[in-house]
Amino acid sequence: MNSILFKEPVKRAEKAIKEFNPNLRVIVLEQTARTAQDAATALGCKVGAIVKSLLFKAGEEFILCLVSGDKRCSLNKLKKILNEKDVSMANPEDVKKITGYTIGGVSPTGHLIKIKIFIDENLKNFDSIFAAAGHPNAVFKIDFESLKSLTSGITQEITQ
Question: What is the predicted pLDDT for the residue at 44?
Fold first, then answer.
């Protein structure tokens, strides 16, 4: 059994995933999946099928954006959607405090604090997508509609 599966953040992500669907499982990769390109290479899939979990600070709120690996999240679109002029990437300390995960392993689920989640509509273009499961070497496979249900995320046009 791989020791990554015993790490607290991975166990927390796995618990949330399994409560949603007992058939979903955490996949431990030999190589790091810290970047979307790394994950795609390790999984043998298109970069767009990788879910990037990006935390943004909007005023005093935090928003998690789940973005297709081949796209960039648009700060301008986020500002318009949120009607907020001060939107920026969250710093690593805030990412850890809000989600309970470190950058490179942020899962779309199992966060320490409940946050609003936006999902990039480009992820609909793939039959299966892969998201981090609490560690740079841990991912899980899911389809778009299930990801929406799992996260209670709102589909938005958030990429540039």
Answer: 94
Distances from the Cα of 39 to the Cα of 2, 5, 28, 51, 130, angstroms: 18, 17, 11, 10, 8
pLDDT band at 151 (very low <50, low <70, confident <90, very high): very high
Give the whole-angstrom CA distance, residue 143 versus residue 160: 23
Q: Which of 10, 9, 68 is nearest to 39 (CA)?
A: 68
Range 147-153 average pLDDT: 97
- For residue range 4-31, what is the model confidence (pLDDT) as tens digits? 999 999 999 999 999 999 999 999 998 8
Residue 124's CB: how many other CB atoms inside 10 A?
15
Q: Which residues, including other chains, have CB under 8 Å from residue 29's CB and lie 6 or more apart?
A: 39, 42, 43, 137, 138, 139
* Element housing 50 (H / E): strand 50-58
Alpha carbon of 46 to those of 28, 41, 57, 78, 111: distances in Å?
Answer: 18, 8, 29, 25, 27
Distance separating alpha carbons of residues 140 and 112, to the nearest angstrom = 19
